[in-house]
Amino acid sequence: MVDSNEMTINLVVLGRTQTGKSAAGNSLLGSSDFESHRSPSSVTTCCSLGRSCRISGIIRRSGCELALRVQVLDTPSYPHSGLSKEQVTDTVRSALAHHFGEEGLHLALLVLRADLPLCPDESDHTIQFIQELLGPTWKDFTAVLLTHADKAEKAGFSEEAYLHSASSTLLSLLSSVQHKYIFLDNQKTIIKEERAIVLRKLLNFIRQNNYHVLLLKHSKE
Length: 221
Hints:
- This protein is an alpha/beta fold.
- The chain contains 7 helices and 7 strands, in the order βαβββαβαβαααβα.
- It has a single domain (6-209), classed as P-loop containing nucleotide triphosphate hydrolases (Rossmann fold, 3-Layer(aba) Sandwich), CATH 3.40.50.
- The chain is 36% helix and 22% strand.
- The chain is globular and about 45 Å long.
- The mean pLDDT is 89.
- Keywords: GTP-binding, Nucleotide-binding.
- GO terms for molecular function: GTP binding.
- Pfam families: AIG1.
């Protein structure tokens, strides 16, 4: 939060290589701050913070419109093709504390591909990684961002049909985070209206959590 006429939300994107983390971050910011392209190895090797311009028409409070700013922390993937788990964890934990240590984190966005099944081992490793980063209340501060939604749609899956056919592993994960999920097509430039819909959903998740923030420290647990 900044002042009575403006609200800032702090987000971090987490996930595996080539899930579209950096592209999703760019979509949320309405920019191209983060490098994003196909590669045989992990593209992102360090954390970087992107900030949006003032966004209007998204949120109102007490009958007055507030300007919204979005801050997104892009992170190296886990597993990573060139970094160990400890290196990724230390890098992300340090960046979270540096950028959001005083303001707090509103949401961690776990980025998964909608066009690929989520297997139990992958889910277990991902949850363990997020738990180590965010602590025991991680479920309250985590939402799932399902990218490549256009490919699922082209395969004939509406959102309802997709969830009906989803693996028990994915459904269990969505249940654990109180069904906070968003479908996103980040293979093309997101238009203003689509971005507004996504941001309103994120704000609704934050509102459901009573605008609480997760305070982060440099020291390890």
